[in-house]
Design brief:
Pathway: Amino-acid biosynthesis; D-alanine biosynthesis; D-alanine from L-alanine: step 1/1. With 392 residues, the protein is of the alpha/beta class. It has a 9-stranded mixed β-sheet. It binds pyridoxal-5'-phosphate (PLP).
């Protein structure tokens, strides 16, 4: 897969710097937390906004042996030669719709998730055409109520999969499921899902399924729930050094390091009198004579409009707050009389080392979760990958 090449000078305005050494360190931390399981690095949604291929390579360099994506297109892109992912790395994707590229996935040696009969029928048909067996992972709905096969429909799906396996059309390589509330330690649904998963696995195994991997653990479960690790853990957000939830801990407490630093260059600094309205709707009015800084990032770049009058920004060592509404391409901060030059760096979030806010701070300011803050950063913001490949 070709990496995004930013238009010349795009990073002068704003940039998301991705520290691949942090991704590698996070993968090592997660492997230490789940020493008996293999690790699938979840790199869907362009690696949660961090760049799928570079993050996939970093995760593999640090010991991930599987990569996971939502869509088959994301999985196939990782199999393209330009992605630089070794051919022996297993890739799995789980978000299929009828008519999907089953044959391409089979031919690219991608494991496909099957939650229901329609998908099993399509994948076996594609396997006949491809002339080789599909690698199929059967997904159980153990309580999430999203994808996955309901317990009452499981016997039919397992029976059909075992029959197709006997005909040489597929191999059931995995049995898997997904948690609803793993980010709320002690939530009663966690134990309920684990016992439902064990039952559904036992049912399939009793009917002759011999999965290579059984797996259910996302980031919070990888970090807090050893009994959920089985053969494979599937962390996503934690790879990027972001905590799944404050209830699980801060990145620092979890031994994780945020990989993304989002910053912009002030495009204007100016003096304004007191009582001056700022940005659309005049929801901020300067309390006295002051200086305003123009940050050239807006909701088109993924800055939540809900962060209006709330999002924190570090400028010359001081936390400032979004003044008034976030617009499509820009927002304003009140610099309280300070006069940084145009081009001065405004750091929206990063690991926090330089005193800057974190993605979690933006999540709190916007009424959302840190997952959304990093993932929604738009394509107009160039990703600058540092500490890649050889640098340890
Ligand atoms: C996104 C996703 C994950 C990773 O979840 P995190 O909470 O980011 O660790 C794991 N499994 C499935 C099925 C997913 O969709």
């Amino acid at each position: 897969m070709k990496e995004t090449v930013a238009p010349p000078g795009a990073e002068l305005r704003a940039r998301a710097v991705i520290d691949l050494a942090a991704v590698r360190a996070n993968v090592r931390t997660l492997r230490d937390r789940a020493p008996h399981a293999a690790l699938m690095a979840v790199v869907k949604a362009d690696g949660y906004g961090h760049g799928a291929a570079p993050c996939a390579r970093a995760a593999v360099a640090a010991g991930a042996t599987w990569l996971g994506t939502a869509t088959p297109q994301e999985a196939l892109a990782l199999r393209a030669p330009g992605a630089g992912v070794p051919a022996d790395v297993r890739i799995m994707c789980w978000l299929w719709t009828p008519g999907g590229p089953w044959r391409e996935a089979i031919e690219a040696d991608v494991d496909v998730s099957v939650s229901g009969m329609w998908a099993l029928e399509e994948v076996t048909r594609a396997a006949r055409l491809a002339g080789r067996p599909a690698r199929v992972q059967l997904k159980a709905d153990t309580g999430l109520g999203r994808a996955g096969c309901q317990p009452r429909d499981w016997p039919e799906l397992v029976t059909a999969a075992v029959r197709a396996q006997a005909e040489g059309l597929l191999r059931v390589t995995g049995l898997w499921s997904h948690f609803a509330c793993a980010d709320e330690p002690g939530h009663p649904s966690i134990d309920a899902q684990l016992s439902q998963f064990r039952e559904m696995v036992a049912y399939a195994e009793a009917r002759g399924v011999e999965p290579e991997v059984r797996h259910i653990a996302n980031s919070p479960a990888t970090l807090t729930l050893p009994e959920s690790h089985f053969d494979l853990v599937r962390p996503g957000i934690a790879l990027y050094g972001v905590s799944p939830s404050p209830a699980i801990g801060t990145p620092q407490e979890l031994g994780l390091r945020p990989a993304m630093t989002l910053s912009a260059s002030l495009s204007l600094v100016k003096h304004v009198p007191g009582g001056h309205g700022v940005s659309y709707g005049h929801h901020y009015v300067t309390p006295g004579e002051t200086t305003l800084g123009l940050v050239p990032l807006g909701y088109a770049d993924g800055i939540p409009r809900h962060a209006s009058s709330a999002g924190p920004v570090l400028v010359e060592g001081k936390w400032r707050t979004v003044a008034g509404r976030v617009a499509m391409d820009q927002f304003v901060v009140d610099l309280g009389g300070d006069e940084p030059g145009p081009g001065a760096e405004a750091i929206l979030f990063g690991p926090g080392d330089r005193g800057e806010p974190t993605a979690e701070d933006w999540a709190q300011a916007s009424g959302t979760i840190a997952y959304e803050i990093v993932t929604r950063i738009g394509t107009r913001v160039p990703r600058v990958h540092v500490n890649g490949e050889q640098s340890g």
